[in-house]
Design a protein that fits this description.
10 strands; Rieske Iron-sulfur Protein; 3 helices; globular; alpha+beta; signal; Rieske_2Fe-2S
Length: about 210
């Protein structure tokens, strides 16, 4: 009997050695905990997206602010024109008044303004200190570069392909095939400088205006 008891105890002890170990401090993953984790992920992702938008927006505003003075010469004005003509505007989009403008300019000055259709157009100060009664479109008739005025050479000299124009905008050296386009310039009752379309004979060629 003692032998049987000892054998039984040995068998019971051996079987317990192969039993699986209990899980200590385990936590089941429930649908609720998964939802919470997903929610945290979406919140973090939304925060990152928002920060990216803020950074991109800030950069766009900064670059846009620096570019404004240059863009305004090539973007058509949003208002103006009609029977009274198109107001001349400076690089910041402000309307130009003759008295204030001439107070800062000397005879022979050629300065750019925003003209018809938003094109860069030269205002010319005559020797008597008044404005010339026409403006000159600054766009080269060869390939469309904006032509700077060279006071030292008393003519317009295109840096792109070497075209040159007289102070009146007439071609003095190619490859430009045509003179700079003309626009009428007037000062209205309020003293504002305005442009209007030049549709009559081109006094430089005695022919019809090519821009019409």
């Amino acid at each position: 009997m003692k032998l049987l008891s000892l054998l039984s105890m040995a068998l019971i002890g051996g079987s317990s050695a192969f039993a699986p170990a209990p899980v200590v401090n385990s936590r089941a993953v429930t649908p609720m905990s998964m939802s919470a984790a997903e929610g945290e992920f979406y919140i973090d992702q939304n925060r990152r997206n928002l920060m990216n938008l803020i950074l991109v927006g800030s950069a766009a505003v900064t670059v846009g602010g620096l570019a404004v003075p240059y863009i305004l010469f090539f973007v058509p004005p949003g208002a103006g024109g009609g029977e009274g003509g198109t107001p001349a505007k400076d690089a910041l989009g402000n309307e130009i008044f003759a008295k204030e403008y001439l107070a800062t300019k000397k005879a022979g000055d050629h300065s750019l303004a925003q003209g018809l259709k938003g094109d860069a157009t030269y205002l010319i100060v005559k020797e008597d200190g008044t404005l010339q009664d026409y403006g000159l479109n600054a766009v080269c008739t060869h390939l469309g570069c904006v032509v700077p005025w060279s006071a030292a050479n008393n003519k317009f000299m295109c840096p792109c392909h070497g075209s040159q124009y007289a102070p009146t905008g007439a071609v003095v050296r190619g490859p430009a095939p045509l003179p700079l386009a003309l626009a009428h310039l007037d000062v209205d009752e309020s003293g504002k400088v305005v442009f209007s379309t030049w549709s009559e004979t081109d006094f430089r060629t005695d022919g019809k205006p090519w821009w019409m």
